[in-house]
Amino acid sequence: MTPTITAFAASPDRGKGLARDMRVRWALEEVGQPYQVRLVTFAEMKQPAHVALHPFGQIPTYEEDGLTLFESGAIVLRLAEQHTGLLPQDPHARMRAISWMFAALNTVEPSIVERSMAWLFEREQPWYASRIVMLDTRVRQRLDELSRRLGDGPWLDGDFSAGDLLMASVLLRLGSSGIVDAYPNLAAFLARATARPAYRRAFAAQEAVFLASQPPAG
Amino acid sequence: MTPTITAFAASPDRGKGLARDMRVRWALEEVGQPYQVRLVTFAEMKQPAHVALHPFGQIPTYEEDGLTLFESGAIVLRLAEQHTGLLPQDPHARMRAISWMFAALNTVEPSIVERSMAWLFEREQPWYASRIVMLDTRVRQRLDELSRRLGDGPWLDGDFSAGDLLMASVLLRLGSSGIVDAYPNLAAFLARATARPAYRRAFAAQEAVFLASQPPAG
Q1: Are B11 and B206 in contact (CB under 8 A)?
Q2: What residues of chain A, 51 to 80, have a C-beta less than 8 Å from chain B?
């Protein structure tokens, strides 16, 4: 059965590939698994039918025969376990890649999301200028550490894995801030990740949804 | 081989069980796996020997024969895969429990950590009173959703799992804020979790480390 994921009917990032369905689309493309997408509006996300799938009323969800999952990290892990290409076969290397999945989501992403939330909700506040300095410092501390570990390697630990996929997805949320550009090896890591054909296909698919949601020009 | 974890030589939470080694100790106790602890100071955590184990210079780490892991979520998953008792045998139920592991760490914990960080680093700032209202609202939104899903059940999805262990660990970080008390079913969930013999043993072990780190009274 072709799995079905959910995504924003009109993504707030305007098709820049930063919504969390992008991680799942990318993983699906990496493993060559066709999928269907059901689009949901913000109103629909908080209604009982969607909350039954996702307790926190968010996207993405993932449905296959008899199984419903939420949380992009869990969905990527599911795909990585069902298919080859996203986790090493060696049991120890597999667990190390899973460490990087959790590191992306629990150690690196929170500081990046906090910075985005400040921009979204506090940039008109008198304290914003002071806080953003502090938040940038926290992000840079994580990137210092990440850059040091990555070193000259192409990926975080051996071949490309679900850990790299999630870490790249998280770093991309820094967008046009210029913060990643201060780390040439992290910028190169992102360039390698986003040049992957699977990433390009996933990006195009989510961008097409956004473009279709816009009224025709003229 | 008995695995070795790292923990704070002197935990900043003064033995309240909120440091991330507690999650790993609890999982080890749940599955009945003896372990050794190597204590590290804040200075040691940032030195090359520890950074080789943990790229972000944090605790806990986990070492067994030929394998080094970081990230408490990944370590708990490792233990859950090696032993019975923390993940269901049924493949679909297992993945749903893993969804709850990621939900604890990527959806619920960030809002709780952000609140703690504001208390630690911004409570002297003129904007603190305004921000804490906003941060509490974000935490409560997550707890509203979590409480609604938990309903009258003892655990989040069937029997106690690594998802419950991580979610309880995250909610405990709200400590004496009183926020959880507004949700009787979440308070009961925490009471059930912390009454487990494995939790009690893990708590006592980390508390003993803190007490031993203090100068003798008198």
Answers
A1: yes
A2: 51, 55-58, 66-74, 77-78
Partner residue opposite B105 with nearest CB, options A77, A92, A102 = A102
Residue of A nearest to B127 (CA): A127
Of B71, B95, B110, the CB nearest to A69: B95
**Which of A46, A81, A107, A155 would you mutate first to test chain B, the one with the most B CBs within 10 A?**
A107
The Cα B116–Cα B174 span in angstroms is 8
Contact (CB, 8 A) for B155 and B161: yes
Q: Which domains does chain A have, with CATH numbers?
A: 4-85+198-213 (3.40.30.10), 91-196 (1.20.1050.10)
CA distance A159 to A203: 22
B146 touches chain A (CB under 8 A): yes
Q: What is the mean pLDDT of residues A167-191?
A: 96
Measured between CB atoms, does B175 come within 8 Å of chain A?
A: no
Q: Measured in Å, how far apart are chain A's first and last C-alpha atoms? A: 41
What pTM, to 2 d.p., does this model score? 0.97
**Residue owning tokens 């090696």:** B82
Burial B187-197 (b: 16+ CB within 10 A, else e): eebbeebeebe
- Residue A216 pLDDT more than 80? no
> What does the angle CA B85 – CA A92 – CA B43 come to, to the nearest 5 degrees?
90
ipTM of the complex: 0.96
pLDDT at B127: 87
What is the DSSP code (8-state) at residue B182? G
* Residue B16 one-letter amino acid: K
> Per residue in A58-117, pLDDT tens?
999 999 999 999 999 999 999 999 999 999 999 999 999 999 999 999 999 999 999 999
Tens digits of residue pLDDT in A142-160: 999 999 999 999 999 999 9
- Rounded to a whole number, what is the distance in Å from the CA of A70 to chain B's nearest CA? 6
CB pairs under 8 A between A and B: 116
Q: Evaluate whether A58 touches A12 at the Cβ level (below 8 Å).
A: no
Residue A48, number of CB atoms within 10 A of its CB: 7
